[in-house]
Amino acid sequence: EAGVTQSPTHLIKTRGQQATLRCSPISGHTSVYWYQQALGLGLQFLLWYDEGEERNRGNFPPRFSGRQFPNYSSELNVNALELEDSALYLCASSNKGYREYTEAFFGQGTRLTVV
Amino acid sequence: AQKVTQAQTEISVVEKEDVTLDCVYETRDTTYYLFWYKQPPSGELVFLIRRNSFDEQNEISGRYSWNFQKSTSSFNFTITASQVVDSAVYFCALAQRDTGRRALTFGSGTRLQVQP
């Protein structure tokens, strides 16, 4: 069974541009979480989608947004990129999510570099 | 607010030594979940274990064991007879049952270096 897959693996953007990161959850999983791992800031929660709805978001500005598609895949959009957005973006999926809690499994991440 | 503290930033051991990674958490909820994840250099977070707040039974899985003590709000992780492949950053994390706080709160991680 395939794990959580993220694309692209690496992304280089210029300050002010927009970045789109994609995530395909494990088959059967309906919940997708996005986390940012920036140097010196640790792992921080960004967004949680379950069954197509945004359920919760972390303490990030509105230029971080996303959506979940009917097949439960998800994309994260970062607008007006800033240098400090450079980080590893990790996506995770779980198979229940909103109705009951189960552990999340992570993808390999997308390393975003803003120059 | 919830918080996870991993006081050990980096630990270095020689192969075959036992090593314990400490994790202390804070939460006001009575129902919560604790996790350990491993992050090798490749970057992917590998799930190791989940423990529910109402289950204080300790667990052993091969060379790995976990000691959950609610009285001291600790969830420590021990690797017995460490191996070079255990070298990674290990994260302890906490999640609440409340759907508004379902996302993981991570500790800052402990980098484990196992020398041959």
Explain what this protein looks like in three dimensions.
The complex is a heterodimer of chains A (115) and B (116). Chain A is an all-beta fold and 115 residues long. Chain A is built from no helices and eleven strands. In chain A, strands 2, 4, 5, 6, 9, 10 and 11 form a seven-stranded mixed sheet that branches. In chain A, strands 1-3-8-7 form a four-stranded antiparallel sheet, with no helix packed on it. In chain A, β4 (31-38) and β5 form a beta hairpin. The radius of gyration of chain A is 13 Å and the shape is globular. Chain A starts with a strand and ends with a strand. The model of chain A has no long low-confidence stretch (mean pLDDT 93). Chain B has 116 residues and is mainly β. In chain B, 0% of the residues lie in helices and 53% in strands. Chain B has no helices and twelve strands. In chain B, strands 2, 5, 6, 10, 11 and 12 form a six-stranded mixed sheet that branches. In chain B, a hairpin with a 2-residue loop joins β7 and β8. The A-B interface holds A 33, 35, 42-45, 48, 55-56, 58, 88, 90, 92, 97-98, 101, 103-109, 111 and B 33, 35, 37, 42-47, 50, 91, 93, 95, 97, 99-109.
Keywords:
heterodimer, A: 115 residues, mainly beta, 7-stranded mixed β-sheet, 4-stranded antiparallel β-sheet, 0% helix, 52% strand, B: 116 residues, 6-stranded mixed β-sheet, 53% strand, globular
3D shape of chain A: globular
Shape of chain B: globular
Number of helices of chain B: 0
Q: Major sheet of chain A: size, sense and barrel closure?
A: 7 strands, mixed
- Oligomeric state as shown: heterodimer
Quote the distance from N terminus to C terminus of chain A: 37 Å
Task: Please state roughly what percent of the residues of chain B sit in beta strands, choosing from under 5%, 5-15%, 15-25%, 25-35%, 35-45% or over 45%.
Answer: over 45%
